Amino acid sequence: MAWFKRVEKGIVTPTEQKKETPDGLWYKCPECKTVATMAEHKRLLHVCGSCSYHDRVDAADYFDLLFDSGEFSELDADLRSGDPLQFVDTKAYPQRVQATERNTGLKDAVRTAHGMSAGQPLVVAAMDFKFIGGSMGSVVGEKIARAIDFARQNRTPFLMISRSGGARMMEAGYSLMQMAKTSAKLAQLAEAGVPYVSLLTDPTTGGVTASFAMLGDFNIAEPGALIGFAGPRVIKETIGKDLPKGFQSAEFVLEHGFLDFIVDRRELKQRLADLLGMLRPADAAAPEPREARRSSVKTQ
Ligand SMILES: [Zn+2]
Question: How do residues 149-194 score in pLDDT, each as one tens digit?
Fold first, then answer.
């Protein structure tokens, strides 16, 4: 029948007449499915206004959030990875690094900087998950080690923001050495009496959890963050049992004594300032020297 037959083949709409919503205009919360405009989502620091789900953000977002007027000086911005093992998987490691640099505009999976936060000096190292899963290779370890040295030399508190899948397999043993190196640097920082706060965000796993992320004077986390060493699937297969509900969430880890508290990203800057105000190194604007305080206690 003629009326049933499509006379023109297909439906063709010229490109200029197509009406599409541009990508990235709306944000849908994966937890409660609430839809917000991207601008509103950004204004709320990428936290869902309805259920407080914390969306993953980059080092740049934390720098914006924490440093006063978004002003900071970046440390070792040009440090780049070598290819010590000449590692090849689906592509050669240097090619993978170059491609990731192009796609992300980053040089590696951590950025380190210093500046003022709520009127107090602060050194921050923040990881970027989009750079090879936030994996810890020698550049990540070296940048963190140098940031810790900077904090120690300037007697400035150090904040580490972890977001990582663990060690970088393309650097194998070199990655594992970063665990020892960063831990040793943190021991020196502790010896010097300079505070270290570790913020664990979603996800913090593997060698990062097993080294610097759990060595803070305070270990704190964002709500709902996955925190663990091995992933839940690996553990389930190993022990052959179902895992408890909420296993490896920040809330679960807090309940089992591995965290000091959980902090909403929107309150992070103030909570951190309060905490560091209490932990300020003894020689930084202390009302009286430590010895004098001790002797006054004795004579009471
Ligand atoms: Zn939500």
Answer: 999 999 999 999 999 999 999 999 999 999 999 999 999 999 999 9
1 pLDDT above the threshold of 80: no
* Residue 3 counted as domain residue: no
CA angle 92, 95, 97 (to 5 degrees): 110
Query: Looking at the chain, how many residues does it have?
Result: 300
Beta bridge partners of 36: 27
Sheet holding 218-221, edge to edge: 72-75, 110-117, 120-127, 158-164, 196-204, 218-221, 261-262
**Distance between CA 46 and CA 290 in Å, rounded?**
43
Q: Total domain count for the chain?
A: 2
Neighbours of ion ligand 1 (CB under 5 A): 29, 31-32, 34, 48, 50-51, 53
If you measure from the C-alpha of residue 36 to the centroid of ligand 1, how many angstroms do you get, rounded to a whole number?
A: 10
Distance CA 145, CA 127 (A): 14
CATH of the domain at 97: 3.90.226.10
CA–centroid distance, 56 to ligand 1, in Å, is 13
Question: Does any domain span residue 4?
Answer: no
Could you tell me which of 200, 209, 143, 140 has the C-alpha nearest to residue 171? 140
**Pair 37, 26: CB distance under 8 Å:** yes
Q: List the domain range (segments joined by +) for residue 29.
A: 23-55
**Å from CA of 51 to ligand 1 middle:** 4
Q: What predicted TM-score, i.e. pTM, was given to this entire model?
A: 0.86
